[in-house]
Amino acid sequence: MRLWITYQDTNYRRSIPAEERLSICLRFLATGDSYRTIAGSFRAGISTVSMLIPDVVAAIWDCLVEEFMAVPGAEEWRSSDGGIVSNSAFGNDCQTPLRLHSNFRRGKRESRN
């Protein structure tokens, strides 16, 4: 991930190191502070912080998506319901809400006198 959030220095500016980029992003994710507050804490510009956080979050996502957010296969989807669908007392059709609703009775209205 370090290579994905590391940028080159130029003749006009020094780039923000990867460690500081990650620190800024983690502070934002952990605290939920505004960009203005985080920019003041790290002595960076608000526009810098607003561009940096989405880049680092995208890099974190790209690194961890395969390991922690793997898409389940067809067999895993079938076995993941835990028998809820097959053991359900409710049908899997559009009439179920109507049958449930018809079992309720209305109470008598009280007079407003």
Task: Note down, in words, how this protein is organized.
55% of the residues lie in helices and 0% in strands. The protein is built from six helices and no strands.
In short:
This protein has 113 residues and is an all-alpha fold. 55% of the residues lie in helices and 0% in strands. It is flat, with a radius of gyration of 27 Å.
List keywords for this structure.
Transposase, flat, mainly alpha, 0% strand, 113 residues
Biggest sheet features = none
Radius of gyration: 27 Å
Decide which structural class fits the backbone: mainly alpha
**Total number of helices:** 6
The average pLDDT score comes to: 77
Spans of at least 5 consecutive residues with low confidence: none
Q: Give the total of beta strands.
A: 0
N-to-C terminal Cα separation, in Å?
Answer: 73 Å
Give the DSSP E fraction (strand runs of 2 or more residues).
under 5%
- Helix and strand element order: HHHHHH
Give the % helix.
40-55%
Question: Any idea what the shape is?
Answer: flat
Protein name: Transposase
Organism: Knipowitschia caucasica
